[in-house]
Amino acid sequence: MATETLSLGKALNTGLRRALENDPKVVVMGEDVGKLGGVFRITDGLQKDFGDQRVIDTPLAESGIIGTAVGLAIRGYRPVCEIQFDGFVYPAYDQIVSQVAKMHYRSQGKVKIPMVIRIPFGGGIGAVEHHSESPEAYFAHTAGLKVVSCASPQDAYSMIQQAIASDDPIVFLEPKRRYWEKGPVELDAPLSEAYPLHAARVVRPGTDGTLLAYGPMVRTCLDAATAAAEDGRELEVIDLRTLSPLDLTAAYESVRRTGRCVVVHEAPGNLGLGSEIAARITEQCFYSLESPVLRVTGFDTPYPASRVEEEYLPDLDRVLDAVDRTFGW
Q1: If you average pLDDT over residues 53-78, what whole number do you get?
Q2: Count of CB atoms situated within 10 Å of the CB of 152
Q3: 148, 155, 156: which is closest to 173 by C-alpha?
Q4: Dihedrals φ, ψ of 309, to 5°?
Q5: Rounded mean pLDDT, 176-188
Q6: Distance CA 208, CA 16 (A)
Q7: Which residues are catalytic?
Q8: Which tens digit of pLDDT belongs to each residue from 232-248?
Q9: Cβ within 8 Å of residue 63, ≥6 positions away
Q10: Residue 194 to residues 15, 53, 111, 214, 235: CA-CA distances in angstroms?
């Protein structure tokens, strides 16, 4: 089985290429996705190989991109929309929430909306305002949408293909600060044998505490677990991968063994995914918990200027501090 070392960005590019090759109804559309290859070069080379009728440079109008994609999806195409930056998705929010999420339901299943909305999200790249948002809670709260986030090159490669093949509308969150991080990718494995799209995964086993994260924070938690091991604490790290539907089966099993849990995400803590996760774990694992479920998140402020973003983002020290506090009860 062929395994190559690819960056997360290149793995997404390769996955998109496979999807375009395998289904002539797949179309990629967005601002600068064609000739430029996307601002992060995720669609690099695709228009050259598949033509401008399948890899389409759109006007700078996110609502128009999504609205056009809805029409294409109703007519049997599988549009893959790129929102250039997370903070640019809000002009399309009405289309996504009012049309994309509800069309299948209100047509009593007669109309499917097989479309993927790719959103590079999160901070850590020194960008200006509106370029480092974490909007996942808005979409996970919206019934009718599925929301996933990849954290490794292997998942990027397989999950983008699985999302495109799905008949459901999927918001696909890509951790932009991790685009250049590399890892092994099995390119020849059949998609049918890939890890399920809507399932969490244990990425590091442990016995003393559980770290739950998704997207860019998975790497941060893995680094924290490595550092904690030097002090004799073995932390289990779980990549949630799917935010809606939220799969916490592995988390429940882990917390019942470890007795401690810390949830980590970049988005602000107030009404973030961590709140829902903490509530569910408390409900399901109450008698196994040795301490309250703690959260390490961004602060409840607009995303700051790049010169101070490292003060805003959860980092290894903040995660380890939360772990220490779980052992203080």
Answers
A1: 97
A2: 24
A3: 148
A4: -65, -25
A5: 96
A6: 39
A7: 131
A8: 999 999 999 999 999 99
A9: 91, 92, 94, 95
A10: 13, 30, 27, 18, 26
